[in-house]
Amino acid sequence: MALQQEQDSFYLSEEEYLTTEIHSDVKREYIDGRIYAMAGAGYNHNCISANILGEFRNHLKGTPCATFMADIKVRMGKDYVYPDVLVDCSKMAGDDVFSTSPVIIVEVLSRSTRKTDTTTKLLRYINLPSLQEYVLIEQDIVSVQVLRRNKHWLSEYYFLGDAVTFESIGLTLNVEDIYDRVDNRDMNEFRQEKG
């Protein structure tokens, strides 16, 4: 989802953010005391997020782990963000509105979020003690980047024809399944070649 800073120099306390977020009609992230409104996402972004959500949810059925898409915040110290998809294996209650212990976080990149997702959020996410994998998925081209705690957060890239293993939940997905129904040049050429 696209980020848009509400005011260039407007700061809120953490308490003010949490109080106003409950009544806000717009989802807003809170980073370094600043508020960022979350704009809506397009077709490709939603396809990728839904594909990941569906595969994760089906795989994790009957386990303590739960998969969430876009409406559960992650709390990182005094910052609160909405990842596109996350998996949390802790016991969450019915009135919980944020996760403090995700094991996988997925962000679908766009022009407006790429810088934040690959810098600001990356640095915060990898400092979450529970996080095992951070996944960055391009929507305009086929490219899946996975950073893993057990590999010292070094990037591994996956493309069409590759399979991605999400080690923390024991699931392997073909890259083309992550991009099912996505309308970009790479996927359109791939579908034409297949048939």
From TrEMBL:
Q: What GO annotations for molecular function exist for this entry?
A: endonuclease activity
**Naturally occurring in which organism (per UniProt):** Methylomonas defluvii
- InterPro entries given in the database record: Nuclease_put_TT1808, Restrct_endonuc-II-like, Uma2
List, alphabetically, the SUPFAM superfamilies matched. Answer: Restriction endonuclease-like
CDD domains, A to Z: DUF820-like
| Segments passing through the bilayer | none
What are the residue boundaries of the Putative restriction endonuclease domain, all occurrences included? 15-175
> Could you read off the lineage of the organism from its UniProt record?
Bacteria, Pseudomonadati, Pseudomonadota, Gammaproteobacteria, Methylococcales
Instruction: Provide the protein name.
Output: Uma2 family endonuclease
Q: Which UniProt keywords apply?
A: Endonuclease, Hydrolase, Nuclease
Gene3D superfamilies, alphabetized: tt1808, chain A (3.90.1570.10)
